[in-house]
C-alpha cells in the first residue's frame, strides 16, 4: 500500500519509527517531513498530507503531532480526506469500517510506539463496510454527507 506520513517536531521520533516499521512490512512510504526536530507548524504538514491522499498519490495517510489534535484538524480541512484521531486499535478499525477514514492521526505524547503500531495495523487491515458484499449502503450515505451536506 502507498502510505504518506507527516508530523510536527513533537512527533518526529514516532514518525521515524512508524515509517521504518511500515517499510519493513512491505509498504511504500512517502515521508512528508519534517526532517529535523526544529519547531515547525503542524498545519503545514497536515495540509501536505491531505493533499497527497486527496489526489491519490497515497492510498492512506498517517498524521502525527504532540496530541494528534492539531494535525487532525488541519488534515480534515480537505473535503476529500477523512482523518480519525485515535489512541487504540478498535477506534482505528471502526474509523475505517464505518467512516471510510483514509487518514489516521495520533499524538506522540499520548500514544507509545507499540500502541501506535497496533492502531496502524488495525487501520490498514480493516475494509470499509460498504466496500464488502455485505455492505448495506448506510455507511456510504453518511460518508457522502461528510463532504457534501446536501446529500
From TrEMBL:
Pfam families: LacAB_rpiB. InterPro entries: RpiB_LacA_LacB, RpiB_LacA_LacB_sf. Signal peptide: none annotated. The keyword Ion transport does not apply. One of its GO terms (biological process) is carbohydrate metabolic process. The active site is at residues 65, 98. D-ribulose 5-phosphate binds at residues 8-9, 66-70, 99, 109, 138, 142. It comes from the Bacteria. The keyword Isomerase applies. One of its GO terms (molecular function) is intramolecular oxidoreductase activity, interconverting aldoses and ketoses. Keywords: Isomerase. Belongs to the LacAB/RpiB family. This is RpiB/LacA/LacB family sugar-phosphate isomerase. It comes from Qipengyuania marisflavi. The lineage of its organism: Bacteria, Pseudomonadati, Pseudomonadota, Alphaproteobacteria, Sphingomonadales.
Amino acid at each position: 500500500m502507498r502510505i504518506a506520513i507527516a508530523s510536527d517536531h513533537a512527533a518526529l521520533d514516532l514518525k521515524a519509527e512508524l515509517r521504518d516499521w511500515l517499510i519493513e512490512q512491505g509498504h511504500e512510504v512517502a515521508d512528508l517531513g519534517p526532517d529535523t526536530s526544529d519547531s515547525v507548524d503542524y498545519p503545514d504538514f497536515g495540509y501536505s498530507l491531505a493533499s497527497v491522499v486527496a489526489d491519490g498519490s497515497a492510498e492512506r495517510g498517517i498524521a502525527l503531532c504532540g496530541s494528534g489534535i492539531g494535525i487532525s484538524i488541519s488534515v480534515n480541512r480537505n473535503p476529500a480526506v477523512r482523518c480519525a484521531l485515535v489512541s487504540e486499535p478498535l477506534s482505528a478499525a471502526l474509523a475505517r469500517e464505518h467512516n471510510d477514514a483514509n487518514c489516521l492521526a495520533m499524538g506522540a505524547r499520548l500514544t507509545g510506539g507499540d500502541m501506535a503500531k497496533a492502531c496502524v495495523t488495525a487501520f490498514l487491515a480493516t475494509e470499509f463496510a460498504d466496500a464488502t458484499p455485505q455492505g448495506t449502503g448506510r455507511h456510504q450515505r453518511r460518508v457522502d454527507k461528510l463532504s457534501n451536506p446536501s446529500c
